[in-house]
TrEMBL record:
Protein family (similarity comment): Belongs to the NOS family.
Name listed for the protein in its UniProt record: nitric-oxide synthase (NADPH)
Gene Ontology MF annotations: calmodulin binding; metal ion binding; nitric-oxide synthase activity
Cofactor or coenzyme needed: FAD; FMN; heme b
A UniProt-annotated Pfam family: FAD_binding_1
Superkingdom, natural source: Eukaryota
Biological source species: Trichonephila inaurata madagascariensis
Amino acid sequence: MIVIATPENDSFKYFPGDHVGIYPINRQDIVDGILKRISTTCPDPDKPFQLQLRKTVQTIEGPSHRWYPHERIPPLTMRIALSRYLDITTPPGQQFLRTLATMAQDEGDQRKIKLLATDSVRYEDWKSHLYPNLLEVLEYFPSVEPTPGFLLTHLTPLQPRFYSISSSPEFHPEHIHLTVAVVIYKTQNNALHYGVCSNYLESVPVGSEIACFRYVQHILRDISDKVYREIVQERGHFYVCGDVSMAEDVNQTLRSIIQEHGHMNPVAVDNVVKRLQEENRYHEDIFGITLKTAEVTHRGRVEAKNRQSTSSS
């Protein structure tokens, strides 16, 4: 069980079953192994650098190309980037492999990588059998020498992991309890793999700080004016991913935001949400609905409405 101290302010509230997102840190042995493999192109992994993006801006004299600091990645070292910012455990996709093939010094490695990058069936079999992380991919193809720039721009960002809160604020108002199963498994070729976040949490010493954030509907309320402007007025898209309980809470939060900022009655709010769905601007990827779908969905919606009315009263 993981115990997290809650922020010391009255505005923070939670309910059992709410979610907390944890930003993990990648395993040090994988990071060290990757740094060793790219030592030719990255001789000093602890040297700070600033990733910049080239953008075209319009000036009085016409288009101008300028370099700007990356909006999401602060100045950092390659070691920190691989540890905290980049996903190095998910098997690389075919587009990644397609570019990686150009960095292979050996024709055999290049041919094998190109085959995986172009043959979807072979790629899926390879991924299912090995489920390789980045270090294992580099070990499978030893002649490949990727550059730091390639890894920074082609690896996906390390995503937070979501855990349901298993405590009640009535008994633990100053703490959040998470019940976490430590994931360790073997791939089909008998390689030992570790769940990124569960093993990270297991290794964190008592009293340490971890990077986490509140359940998503609280964040929506904090930026409610921006949500209304970008989703309703500017016809943006709204994405929801998670279990049915979270999805219903988010749905009710969005409805309350539309009602408040649009000065609408419930019927008008329903029409706005319906229009979002009809125009394919409300996207949901919901898990946790397997049996008795209608019953579960209805119960989740009712519970979400009850929580919404309780928190606003």
